[in-house]
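User: Fold this; tokens only.

Assistant: Input:
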Amino acid sequence: MIPRKALALGAVLVAVSIGTASAQEPQPNDLLLATLWTQRSVEFKGNALTVYALAKIRLDQALADKNWTAAPVEQKGDYQNLPPAIVLDVDETVLDNSDYQKKLAVTGERFKDATWNAWIEERRATPLPGAEGFITTVLDGLHGQVILVTNRKQSQCAATEDNLRTVHVRYDRILCDRAGNGDKNPRFSAVIEGEPGVTPALNILIWVGDNIQDFPSLNQKATGDFADFGSHYFALPNPLYGSWQGVPPR
């Protein structure tokens, strides 16, 4: 294991090399280290590619199993004959916002709605490794639907869609956070059940996210609810932020 101080020194030296820090005694900066790992390590890329590769394998299995559903509690009626779909989160699942996190790490700022909104308006987030290929497989190979459910605010949806188009990420629908409370479960239900005269009910085959709350009815208290991970649920690594930050230390 590399000593923490050595890691901190390495992080500061990287910052110095791009003219963003002074050559003073380095202070540990967890966000800077997490950002460097996300942006530079082959391990992060390998993890993301592994998650999406396994999701593709499970998708093939789902197509061969008429009774497959990733929403057995929520799904009602004759779900086997509903159009197939996958549901994905956006941030740190489809789009990589680590450049925004790098700005915070270098300046020492905390997350603020104003700076986050400014980043979204820049429309510069890039696709995560494996995301675009997996989505293309669903749309072109499976002829299924791709639904994006994000906690970006409704006012940020237009810029988000522009960003997705710019990086050639396709999808059928995107559901931003109209309520402003961060609870995705009502939107999950709307996707599964459909809206009469607007959208059809769907059979969700796979969920992909980076936060436990990207999966139906789960949260940081879900200590034993992991049976669906690796088969119906797929979680990407995100050391930058998340609901895990609110969990008290043991």
